Amino acid sequence: MANKTPKIAVIWFPGQNCEDESKLVCESAGMKADIIVVNSSVDPKILEQYDGFFIGGGWSYEDRIRAGAIAAKDPIMLKIKEEAKKLKVVLGVCNGAQILVETGIIPGLKDKVQLALAPNTNPKISGYYNTWVYVKHECKKTNAFNIAGVDEVMHIPVAHGEGRFTTTDKELIKQLIKNDQILFRYCDEEGNIDEKYPVNPNGAVYNIAGITNKEGNVLAIMPHPERASWNKQLPYYEQHSFEENEKAAPCMKIFESIRMYLEKRIK
Amino acid sequence: MTSTKQLEMFVRLVMPDNIALTAKHTLLKMGFKLADLRREDYFRFEADAKNTEELKNLLAKTDVLANANKHKVSFDLERDGTKILVTEIDNTSQGLLHTLRERLGFAQIHAASNGTLWTFIGCTEEDAVKMTKELLINEHYQEFKVLQ
Fold first, then answer.
1. Which domains does chain A have, with CATH numbers?
2. What is the mean pLDDT of each run of 10 residues along chain B (148 residues)?
3. Contact B29/A169, CB-based, under 8 Å?
4. From B19, B91, B95, residue closest to A65, measured CB to CB
């Protein structure tokens, strides 16, 4: 019997701007995707019909107060928190990651905010910073996002002003490492970790680029995998023939992984 | 030897402040009660004590810290409501100091820091602190203090 096709809700808060590319990459990975525009008339119950949620990039509510702070208080996020407990997939990219951190869903070890995505500390450029970086896949535990092999290096763009994972809880990073919750770390082209700029583009503690919850069904990632899922999206010096450029790039594995995880869950 | 003096500068929008309005409406939706919420950019300088009035005048007119077309600048803290100053824990404000000293020529300024000053109207100090913790700061990179 054929598997059902997983359905993803692409959550679009006012001020976000990645909804179309987010929808496209989900569909290209073999899932159905609808864009859900968040406004006062949206009933959060609409989310119950979806198997997963993709909160994309942009500036929800113009980053008023700080990135993700207002969206994190929206009733729709309470519903997503509830749905995540049912082991549905939640992917937060860039501003989506900031929202997940501000709700406490990531890292989700306590019922409170345990992390911040603070303003970048970059010795060259203050504020918004936009470049290509390398991230290394480090998680050994099976989760919804990791069909990529351990130590696989991906080339991926970052574009943010507040992307520095940090915490005042001195034990938290040890706990995240112990739980295998740190999925991606900034590294150089060969996969070597260097805590300094430019390898670490924003000063993130432990070079963290992406963190999952303990159960492995929620990921907050600052770089944009949806902008590096085809070879044609990679920098020009990595592009080849027309045929090669139409093929999937390594970041597509994140979305294929989500589809495979959900197909197992909903069959 | 020239002695130093501390200056505090408050920069407020004269037009509707969308950030303060969004914060206020979010707090009301979260169940808090307050009549109004104001926001100001806060700057603190350590500068040579002589000619402070001239320095104030120049700072207000730099068009870097404030834009005369949309901001009102004050060097005195208004005594209304509960004042809560939010700052970043590890922000040394070196960029601000560098801009003032090296780009704008304020050699008489030796130290500078900045933050956001929130004024809560129509609520207790206890509630203002609670609202700050729940919405206005992320304690993993920001801190606050109540200004008396």
1. 7-266 (3.40.50.880)
2. 86 97 97 98 91 89 88 93 95 83 91 96 98 98 95
3. no
4. B19
Choosing from A160, A226, A251, A256, which is the catalytic residue?
A226
A246: pLDDT confidence band, cut at 50, 70 and 90? very high
Taking an 8 Å cut-off on Cβ atoms, the answer to whether B138 and A102 are in contact is yes
Q: Using alpha carbons, list the distances in angstroms from residue A69 to A83, B24, B96, B137.
A: 20, 13, 25, 9
Give CA–CA dist A33/A8, Å, rounded: 5
Contact at CB, A65 and B18, closer than 8 angstroms? no
CA angle, residues A80, A210, A129, in degrees to nearest 5: 105
Whether A224 is catalytic: yes
Dihedral (C-alpha) A72, A77, A80, A81: value to the nearest 10 degrees? 60
Quick check: A1 pLDDT over 70?
no
Q: Which residues in chain B are contacts of A167 at CB distance < 8 A?
A: 140
A169 near B CB under 8 A? yes
pLDDT in tens, A35-80: 999 998 999 999 999 999 999 999 999 999 999 999 999 999 999 9
Of the candidates B97, B106, B143, B118, which has an alpha carbon nearest to the alpha carbon of residue B26?
B118
